[in-house]
Design a protein that fits this description.
16 strands; ten-stranded mixed beta sheet; Creatine Kinase, Chain A, domain 2; 442 residues; Ubiquitin-like (UB roll); alpha+beta; six-stranded mixed beta sheet; globular; 2 domains
Length: 442
């Protein structure tokens, strides 16, 4: 494990302490490195209002508590030097009340609890996750709609690398920086959309994987800003281009380190695997709010976008909510294709794990897997549709007692209050589309 003393001898003089808010944004403070021991002992105080702020700077919840302090306590195991700013070491934090008790709105804490519940089972399972995130790069342009244009704007650069797809070499720089940050980055490429990119990250135990996804998003945005660019992970930044997804590759390791999804059942799956899938399907409508936590997310959800719209699973079928790739052995996994890049990786992963855990505890059985074009199958009419709007997703979350209780009533209540306020503002906003559609004719 890298220690701060080691990093100080290498020139580090500052510690950046970060934690995710409910949106998944990295919040925190920077400190002189010499102050770190005090942070480990006492934590760093922050006003808890930061956990109730929406994205337009409105404090939506919290006055009933008098805007008390919460403490961000460093997790020294997460300390790492920032490659593009080598005088700074980056450390993640857990949130506590000032009396040392856990803070109920800490999304990292929710994932810790989900992992602990798996490990407490008689099966001794350890959840493993591989994050898969896409993002767009944009250039400031005062003449472009919303003040930005695409970083590159040529068709069909998918799986293209080098200067044609990345004129400033930003993607390659990100790849190596993310590898140096120990984020498990091992490949990068231009994706299907124009100026859409992906950097592949390896799988690992769920908390570590969510930490890496959280850091990855922040690193991409910071490095983009250093180049005068904007990186965005939202699901649908452009009307005339593809959406960006956040797919979770989930598996379970047993006490001997073997993949517990392997078995002698049909297609080589274990009972635990099918029970886990059944739990994901059971709670998928409620999970939508965490996996697609903006009004924009629902712009990309339609039948022709390789985005699931029905509660379904299948073997190597990218139209399904839960896709089971054909690999077996160590590579056996469930790809949950539900989310977009705006999701808080801790909340999304925790919700998926609590859902799968419910399936295992209740020994649920999923319906038969579906193959081919789902929407043309006779059984499609009987499948449960996923929420197609943010309003419907928030209602589904509020109606799912298992997910609410598992994630924590305080966390879910605060999340719903912030997001319903955000949704209400969106309903009252006059859009560019409405102006263009109606003003000249009506």
């Amino acid at each position: 494990m890298t220690t701060l003393s080691d990093l100080i001898t290498q020139g580090v003089n500052t510690v950046r302490l970060s934690y995710p808010d409910l949106h998944g944004i990295a919040r925190g403070k920077e400190f002189p490195a010499a102050y770190f021991e005090h942070l480990v002992e006492d934590g760093a105080a922050h006003c808890e209002a930061i956990m109730t702020v929406d994205l337009r700077h409105n404090v939506v919840a919290g006055p009933e508590h008098g805007f008390q302090d919460i403490a961000a306590r460093p997790d020294p195991d997460t300390l790492v030097r920032i490659p593009w700013d080598p005088t700074v070491a980056w450390c993640l934090a857990d949130l506590e009340r000032m009396d040392g008790t856990p803070y109920g709105v800490d999304s990292r804490g929710a994932l810790r609890r989900a992992v602990a519940e798996f490990e407490a089972l008689d099966l001794g399972l350890t959840p493993v996750m591989g994050p898969e995130l896409e993002f767009y790069l944009a250039v400031p342009d005062e003449n472009a709609p919303n003040g930005y244009r695409r970083y590159v704007d040529n068709d069909s650069h998918v799986y293209t690398v080098g200067n044609v797809a990345d004129p400033q070499g930003v993607l390659r720089e990100m790849l190596h920086a993310c590898a140096d940050l120990e984020l498990g980055a091992f490949a990068a490429n231009h994706e299907f959309g124009r100026a859409q990119y992906e950097i592949n990250l390896r799988h690992s135990p769920a908390l570590d994987a969510a930490d890496r996804a959280f850091r990855f998003k922040d690193a991409v945005k910071e490095m983009s800003a250093r180049h005068g660019l904007l990186a965005t992970f939202i699901g649908k930044p452009w009307n005339d281009d593809e959406g960006s997804g956040f797919h979770l590759h989930l598996s379970l390791a047993d006490e001997r380190g073997n993949n517990a999804l392997n078995g002698r059942g049909k297609e080589g799956l274990s009972p635990v695997a099918t029970q886990f899938i059944a739990g994901l399907l059971e709670h998928a409508p409620a999970m939508m709010a965490f996996f697609n936590p903006t009004t924009n997310a629902y712009r990309r959800i339609h039948e022709e976008a390789l985005v699931p719209t029905l509660v379904s699973w299948g073997h190597d079928n990218r139209l399904c909510l839960a896709r089971v790739p054909r690999e077996r052995g160590k590579a056996t996994r469930i790809e949950l294709r539900l989310g977009d890049g705006a999701a808080n990786p801790y909340l999304a992963t925790a919700a998926a794990l609590f859902a799968g855990l419910d399936g295992i505890k209740r020994k649920l059985r999923p319906p038969a897997p579906v193959a081919g074009l789902i929407y043309e199958l006779p059984e499609a009419e009987k499948m449960t549709p996923l929420p197609r709007s943010f309003e419907a997703a928030l209602a589904a979350l509020n109606a799912d007692d298992l997910i609410k209780q598992s994630m924590g009533e305080e966390l879910v209540g605060t999340f719903l209050e912030i997001k319903n306020f955000e949704l209400d503002r969106s309903h009252r906003y006059v859009t560019d589309w409405e102006w263009r559609e109606y003003t000249h004719h009506l």
